Amino acid sequence: MTRIADEKVLVLDFGSQYAQLIARRVRQQNVYCEIIRHDIAAQRIRELAPKGLILSGGPSSVYEPDAPQCDPELFQLGLPVLGICYGMQIACQALGGQVQNTPAREYGRAHCRVTKPNELFAGVPEAIDVWMSHGDQVSQTSNEFVPLAVTDTCPIAAVKHRSLPIYGLQFHPEVTHTPRGANILGNFLQTVCGCSGTWKLGDFARETMDTVRLRVGDSRVICGLSGGVDSSVVAALLAQAIGPQLSCILVDNGLLRKDEEMAVIREFADHFKTDLHVVKAEEKFLEALADITDPQEKRRCIGHAFIECFAEEAAKIEGARFLAQGTLYPDVIESGGSLDGPAATIKLHHNVGGLPKDMAFELIEPLRDLFKDEARALGKQLGLPDDIVWRHPFPGPGLAVRCVGEVTKVRLDTLREADVIVVDEIKKAGLYRKTAQAFAVLLPVQSVGVMGDARTYADVVAVRSIDTEDFMTADWSHLPYELLARISTRIINEVQGVNRVLYDISSKPPATIEWE
Ligand code: XMP
Question: Is the pTM here over 0.85, yes or no?
Fold first, then answer.
């Protein structure tokens, strides 16, 4: 699909955990932004015609033999450049500055003082808190650079080139721990790059619908619905773009959360009046999963069964030529699927629930330029209810990977009941949007308890709730004790066969978000 923005800024990714965050922060200022590989040729940048470049941070030291480099010619393109952390070091080094390894890595909050008023810090107080995370720092610049700010341990916390529109920040303006970071990025985008900030999601929706209509003509499009945010937003977008030419398929694999199937039917069959095919396949999935306890084996089984069900149903839909999927920008970047994008990262891709690439359909991926928060905002614009728009992510293999050990109908029902209590209580406490993913896990362990006068020997449920922006790293949510107490009491009282509740206090890494 062709791009939609007149003005764009490119983020060169040097391996930073924050590259996507930088891009989102830029888009939050209504400037379209894409992440590209750090070694992209200057000539290619010229062709892409961005308004400016941001060089991301990265884990390397500029002096390491394999340190990621950029094409030095890019500094001669006359384009505004903002180097952040490693990006600043690369820029300074390329233009004659010196980078030194500081004795101690500086990590965390620092007080920064702006020493030279300039456009990057316009409207920003002279003393600000900033977030540092670096080993090396620029120790000396060539005469071409003017230092702009200092911290206690960093004599050159920000710089500006004397004659070129090149700036550097040793700290991270993109993280929330740099409270005035948005002002600084905004100054770069508006004043230095001259962006007008007119990129709007509303335009995106309209233009994407036009593009889809044009491409699809009068053919039929199939869309797989899972109840998750991404596929729901795609379906809502297509429902508005091509209405009666859309057919949705929901595979009820028996591994969905309580009442999920009904919510999807209500929304798409009743509200959007979409042609919705619900494939009742609980038995097929449970049979395939019988006696399987290995997590990856579960995923494989579920993946195969899903493809069979989906393909069988799709074959019944006459004239279907296109298949719509809810691929998001991070999926595109992380799978290395973008032409100029960075190479695939090490992120484990579990998307066994996906469809094989060789299905006889042409793919439509209307969200492939959007981040999750943008997909949510789009869903809201398209009229999806909050309940769907703000739904926590749910893994393709569903509750099977939260039923640790054997997956049976009885165990799934137990888990479903516990899960709905966890989510319900977190919502009632007003913490559902603050937490990124919250759920129950049924353990393959029985423990002794007493209920009334009787001794019990029953199941154990673990509660998991995590806070994260990117799902690559995550912290366990520091939920209030009273909330945990309510969850525990309700699960033990209301869910038959459970007599003990645990709260998972492991961060990722080293733990993962799911238990399997
Ligand atoms: P982990 O457990 O790897 O999960 O920390 C990171 C995110 O991915 C989701 N997840 C999956 N999603 N198929 C999916 O579509 C899977 O097999 C799968 N396993 C984990 C998980 O829920 C979390 O959001």
Answer: no
